[in-house]
Design goal:
By secondary structure, the chain is of the alpha/beta class. The protein has helices spanning 12-34, 58-71, 91-97, 111-121, 143-150, 165-177, 197-204, 208-217, 223-238, 269-289, 294-298, 311-318, 327-338, 344-355, 362-366, and strands spanning 39-43, 81-87, 104-108, 128-133, 156-163, 244-252, 258-266, 299-300, 325-326, 371-375, 394-398. The strands form 2 sheets. It has an 8-stranded mixed sheet, sandwiched between helices. The protein has a 3-stranded antiparallel sheet with strand order 9-11-10. Helix 1 packs parallel to helix 2 (58-71) and helix 10 packs across helix 13 (327-338). The radius of gyration is 22 Å and the shape is globular. The chain binds S-adenosylmethionine. S-adenosylmethionine (SAM) binds at residues 6, 45, 47, 57-58, 86-90, 110-112, 134-136, 140.
């Protein structure tokens, strides 16, 4: 589908993306507003607001999250929240579609120019910015923008980005070998005649991608491996900006190559945990409630392959003898390995089982007490703490 027809009808892959955005934003806003600081959500490639078939686009989803916060009389003391929607082409449609929503501002123009302006304006306040980056292809994603984010000391940012690794490689092959492999010959991708090798270096923040393409061309690696290696390298670039980066491959079943990768970057472990917990929940709810079975037929959802993973074994391997690890660090390591395949609650259940703490549960009865959970803090009532709250001083040790 060419980009001119993008808004005719919302496609299944856009619906998958929406689940992630909407699942995360509500708990994220609640958490951030609780700190008392201003919060800005920037939809950097906003679109029309609504698809021509009536389905909502990201701007309406975001505007509704804000409306619910403003309407809520009890839960939010701090309502200093605003959304900016940057849109180059469909800004008039977007303004119309957002007419009845407050604290929502449409910026007509380019992401590249306006994002710097937004950062400059918010510099004085201790603002939290959530950037949703959903372009058609990769051409507007110069890494310079992320480097700019790295150097902001008063603004804390998080990004959720639809990164078209497929499209990047396609452009890469076109530019380096003048030949696009059949795996990448797909009509659903916006072709961008203006790209150049130096522009691709700027997007990738390095030249590593060129070697990947050469290795594929000399059959050292498969296309599937090329995409994996590329995204690992790109993720390590983003890890120079954010402490925690996870990527979620959105795969079509008929094709092993991900259609795109959703990349989430944050400097706060709480943001990371929130994303993992909520994404897992949204997928499960989505699977239970959706009537749109075409999505299951077409997409391989993130938990598809986890049947083969023995979580108890994985966790035990991460806790070396005589070397305790904090619960927080253990969760971070697990997420680094498995992305959003498991929820935080699933990890906690395994920990409880391995420690034998939950004797009343079947898992507890058969547990071998392989680990010990050490809680180095007191509860306000003086009772023995039993929780697994990552903000508390909790350590895990092998026994
Ligand atoms: C994939 S669509 C966004 C869809 C939207 N997230 C939704 O859920 O409805 C990308 C949008 O970015 C706009 N666009 C393209 N290049 C842009 C740029 N450099 N700056 C701002 N907007 C741009 C396009 O006009 C298009 O509306």
């Amino acid at each position: 589908m060419a980009s001119e027809n993008f808004f005719d009808k919302k496609q299944p892959w856009s619906k998958v993306k929406d689940k992630v955005v909407s699942g995360y934003l509500e708990p994220y806003c609640a958490k951030l507003l609780f700190t008392g600081k201003p919060l800005k959500i920037v939809d950097c490639f906003a679109g029309k607001g609504k698809f021509d078939d009536g389905e909502e686009g990201s701007p309406l989803m975001i505007a509704k999250v804000i409306r619910n916060i403003l309407k809520n009389e009890t839960s939010y003391k701090n309502k200093n929240i605003e959304a900016c929607f940057i849109e180059k082409k469909y800004h008039d449609d977007l303004k119309n579609n957002l007419l009845y929503f407050s604290q929502c501002r449409v910026i007509s123009g380019n992401f590249e120019e306006n994002i710097s302006e937004i950062l400059k304006k918010n510099k004085k306040e201790e603002t939290s910015l959530f950037l949703y980056i959903d372009p058609y292809g990769i051409k507007s994603l110069s890494f310079k923008i992320f480097n700019k984010l790295k150097n902001m000391d008063t603004i804390s940012t998080e990004i959720l980005m639809n990164f078209n690794s497929f499209g990047f490689l396609r452009e890469g092959f076109r530019l380096i070998s003048h030949d696009i492999p059949t795996d990448l010959l797909e009509s659903n991708y916006e072709i961008d005649g203006k790209n150049s090798i130096s522009r691709m270096n700027e997007i990738a923040n390095g030249i590593y991608w060129q070697k990947i393409i050469k290795d594929k061309n000399s059959n050292k690696i498969t296309m599937y491996e090329a995409e994996e290696i590329f995204i690992q390298e790109y993720t390590s670039q983003l890890k120079t900006v954010y402490n925690y980066v996870i990527n979620i491959p959105i795969k079509e079943k008929r094709n092993r190559l991900p259609k795109y990768r959703l990349i989430f970057g944050t400097n706060h472990y709480e943001g990371l945990f929130l994303m993992v917990e909520n994404m897992k929940k949204s997928w499960t709810l989505f699977l239970d409630s959706t009537n749109d079975h075409s999505l299951f037929d077409e997409f391989e959802l993130p938990e598809y392959n986890i049947g083969k993973i023995n979580l108890e074994e994985v966790i035990l391997n991460l806790i070396t003898k005589n070397n305790r690890i904090s619960l927080r660090d253990l969760l971070i390591k697990l997420i680094d390995m498995h992305g959003i395949s498991f929820s935080i609650s699933q990890y906690k259940d395994v920990l409880v089982k391995l420690s034998g703490e939950s004797k009343s549960s079947l898992g507890g009865l058969f547990a071998d007490n392989k680990i010990q959970i050490i809680r180095e803090y007191k509860t306000p009532t003086g009772k023995e703490p039993r929780d697994l709250d990552w903000n508390n001083k909790i350590y895990i040790e092998r026994v």
